[in-house]
Amino acid sequence: MWESLPIGQQPSQLLQSRVEVEKGALVRVIGPARVQVLDGCIRILGISICKGEAIVVNKYRSYCLISLENAVLNVSLGEGGSIEKPSPGEEVIAEWESVAKAIVSSVDTVVVVLGAVESGKTSFSTLLSNIALEIGRKPCIIDADVGQGDLAPPTFIGMKCLDRKILWLREEKGDYIKFIGFLTPSISIAMTKIITGVVEFVNKAKIMGRDFIIINTDGWFGDISSIEYKYSLIKSVTPSSIVILGGEFCSPFRSMFKKSSVNVYCLPKPRVIRERSREDRRDLRKINYRKWFSDMKKMCIDLDNISIAGVCAFSGATVSRDEIAELEKFLGTKVILASKYIDADVVVVPDEAQVPREVLERFERKLLIVKPSNVRGVISAILDKNLNEVGVAIIDEINFNIRKICIQTSYSGEISGLIIGRVKLDEQWNDSIRYPRCVI
Prior knowledge:
- Strand 20 (337-340) and strand 21 (345-348) form a beta hairpin.
- The protein is α+β, with helices and mostly antiparallel strands.
- The protein has helices at 93-105, 121-134, 188-207, 224-237, 250-256, 278-293, 312-315, 321-331, 357-362; strands at 15-21, 26-30, 33-39, 41-44, 47-50, 54-57, 62-67, 71-77, 82-84, 110-115, 139-143, 156-161, 176-179, 212-216, 241-245, 263-267, 297-302, 307-309, 317-318, 337-340, 345-348, 367-370, 378-383, 389-399, 404-409, 417-424, 433-434.
- Strands 13-12-11-14-10-15-16 form a 7-stranded mixed sheet, with helices on both faces.
- The chain has 3 domains: 15-84, Jelly Rolls, CATH 2.60.120.1030; 93-276, Rossmann fold (3-Layer(aba) Sandwich); 295-440, Pre-mRNA cleavage complex subunit Clp1, C-terminal domain (Elongation Factor Tu (Ef-tu), domain 3, Beta Barrel).
- It has 9 helices and 27 strands.
């Protein structure tokens, strides 16, 4: 059975109808909806769904199905859902499936999927995986989108190696995750971390004996920096093929990779899609946070017993006691900890301390003032002894007096290290607080 519950609450059924579909006909379903096959067979993203089986289409998704034979469907629509017959040229599933079969049937090992927001990258990546499974290949999907990814929580990228067909990637959890710490790849350090993480994933998949690796990229696509970033990513993983959804940047990528061993496929994107608003994208991130951060418990760890990255107060050169005393006199407050860098001094002061801006401006060096409470709610990664990300965490507090850091996590294994991120969650899972530098 292909029936599965969407992430979040299933929509109430407001309209139910019986739909007869002729062989070869296309039908577009916009969620929330439930489609049950009463007779015949249909196909969606490389999945054949036949009599007695059903699918659930989440309110954030839309799919084009093709009838493999005369079929009868029972369609239940939630609020905002619809089922309609596409106009000629609106749907591209036939062309997509033809190219996907050609790629999967070749000797291709690594495929990179590119496109702008709402161009169908995730759907095409899922189609590739499903068809690969259909012919006996062993696919892995690497989700390299740090903001709106499906296989990892926001600020992470993930990889899932699949042994069964799926309809919506978001209903899966990555087998492996890498911490990036940002919600956008447009920051230079984030680009570097994503490329490094993707390369590690590709190598891991090959070592595991997986013979078809799909890299699903983010929707940052079209400006100068994004094209250069995508070129660097592609060059780093040396794929057999790249697929570009939407024709605007087809020629530039063909030019960049002409006379190379990389095959460039340019495909149209669907003309009618379930567009996501800014609120939809925020809500999807919240759903993803809840999926990964549910059933958490508080755990406190000795700072001296683990490695910690992403904490500016720990990572710079040591500040002497005499220098700290001088800082306290100048700032008029206790200094808990200080760390020196070439471009600034990072100074940790008590939460209740108030340091006027004009005081900071008079100091001979640039001072970055941080407070212990800054870390509460910050998304972080748990590391094993080999520095692999093995769990996700939210920082609860850091106590410099007793040298402990407390986290909220569902991970129960041994913790050898933490990487502190730049994105902070509130109690409603909002991630609007984002630090340009280290949190503390």
